[in-house]
Amino acid sequence: MEYTVVGFPRIGEHRELKQATEAYFRGEKQTHELLADVERLRAAQWEKLRACGAALIPSNDFSLYDGMLDTAWMLNVIPGKYARLGLDEVGTYFAMARGYQGEHGDVTALAMKKWFNTNYHYMVPELDENTTLCLRHAHFLDGYEQAKHMGIETRPVVVGPYTFLKLARSSCDKKQFIASLAGAYAQLLKYASSRGVQWVQFDEPALVLDMTAEDVALLGALYESVLADRPADGTKLLVQTYFGDVRDCYERLCELPVDGIGLDFVEGKLSAQLMAQHGFPADKTLFAGVVNGKNVWRCRYRDMLEQLRKLCGMVRHVVLSTSCSLLHVPYTVAHEPQLPEQVRQRLAFAYEKLGELREICRLVDLPDCATDAAFLANEALHAAAPLAPNPAVQQQVASLTPRDFKREMPRRSRQALQRETLALPLLPTTTIGSFPQTASVKRHRARWRKGEISADEYANLVRVDIKRCIALQEELGLDVLVHGEYERNDMVEYFGENLAGFVFTRDAWVQSYGTRATKPPIIVGDISRISSITTPWISYAASLTQKPVKGMLTGPVTIFNWSFPREDVPPAESMYQIALALREEVLELEAAGIRIIQIDEAALREKLPLRRADWHSEYLDFALRAFRLCHSAVQPATQIHTHMCYSEFEDIISYIDAMDADVITFEASRSKLTILRALVQNNFETEVGPGVYDIHSPRVPSVTEIAASLKLMLRDIPADCLWVNPDCGLKTRGEPETIAALKNMVQAASCVRDTLR
Questions:
Q1: pTM of the model
Q2: Fold of 2-84+114-383
Q3: 616 noted as active-site residue
Q4: Annotated catalytic residue, options 328, 483, 641, 696
């Protein structure tokens, strides 16, 4: 049996792509130097896959920023405002990704959304009546040609036409683009065939979403048109799905004149059942995604082999694969020697998963694995006792009652009390929490971690930064202040470091978007609070000002969703354990006199099941309860905030209201405030702060621009329910642009406030 992977990490083992790209942004690298770095990183990736014995190695899964953006660029979906800047190719590409503000003009970036149920973000293509959709270049084969020169045959990967059209945003009827879209993909295949490409992969994750009969018809129409004139001996086409099963279109998918179908047997609950019920075409290759591409625990060979043997009984030709791209896991456990051995041996990052795939391919051909050393070692590993059990925590969760999840006073009554107690002006201004992590902040943290300065010396340096941050916010005129989060390396990792049940990595980076990567903690056992996490820092900040200072916590759902979770306990169990630990912190902050506490749930939407029928039973019921468990015991006058970013919220607005927070802030600038109508339609009770400017772009919004956004918001949101804030934390931004943007934000709020008196 052969094996392959859907895709591979692309930022470099030590984030080399991030470093190269950011050097380009700073003007320290020329375009040709950046592209040369990309070639080196791609080559190293292919060499690793070849050395591990992979077949049909993917190419074009590498990206300077994002695969959806690459596809839009390839298909000439470039809005006029970017083309008119007059920048070179790479400059225009990055203007779409990050926005641009300079001598050539001033444009905002494309919208950015979560990629299905992951923490990866994609850029949302924009179609309009001026879009001329066509194959504008063949750069999707650049990697193929490079690998060919290395003696490696690869399969180029592009986002498929159905997924591209479904995820794109359009100001006109998308149906008008169907013919030109199909034509562009047909041309793509013809060009690939002319270059001798054996396989091309079209990624179609949108097929695992709820599909209507019209959607299924669209899928068929697109592919019938794309493949209408393909020669029999032309490039073979793999339609790759992932993140779930294709229950709504399985039969139609099997009918399409494609050569391979990739199915997810990890998150695809019905994939095996669909095959058993409807069969699988004898003329097609099944790319069986049985190895988890999103979590980091070693698979159990016994389960994999049993599954593969069943599939081989139904399908003539099977290629073993991952459930999705390995983009969502780190590179290798080899860079983590500090982890306890009993943890290390249970982990499999991308490189280790290649070893698992190769081992499974070997084992599946054996008549009997019972005496095989690798098989027996894997069995022993999975029979070992759980890591870090805590019976007291388990009992605490088991003892929860409905009263633990509910605040006593209704929200509208609380809001009146809070307005009187806090005495804030209309349109109060604040930030989401973090301030820029300057070079000196990072340097101080690195010196402390290396043991070059003591914990006390480091704490004193953090207090200096907090004092400076409070003074800056008072100078800017913000109404509700934050301490800046200078003590935190990451909004999840920092909390995990102060909770029992987690382990942490040094170099296990995973791409979140563009040049941004995170090191997700790994949940290995039962979770509990070790000691005070934030109170000393927040209390110190509050002592420096007469204005209210927000306590800043990351919520239980986000901590869970942005960690690699256990697979031996239900998600609800871990979320409740985290919530109970944070509940202690919330009550400690309140006892210290902090009257505004923000519990960020940036990732609430992230693990929402992709099919609406599963929302309650498999996620929302316990996720919302976990959030409420954190804050249900505070006094009515204590104002609870939460924050969410870069996702689709319109269809879950009523559930967000059910979190029973007092104020919610969320991303709205890139999504052009489309959420406002949903707030009105759902009679949203929570006070809101839709982001008035995009912090993921370096451009500084003007006073006029922000004021216009606020006036638009006031059409739908009562003035006494509207907060003014950026759309996310400021840690990734530079200080000059941050100060300029906040100054304009405060001035805009003041100008609009004056019109309301």
A1: 0.91
A2: TIM Barrel (3.20.20)
A3: no
A4: 696
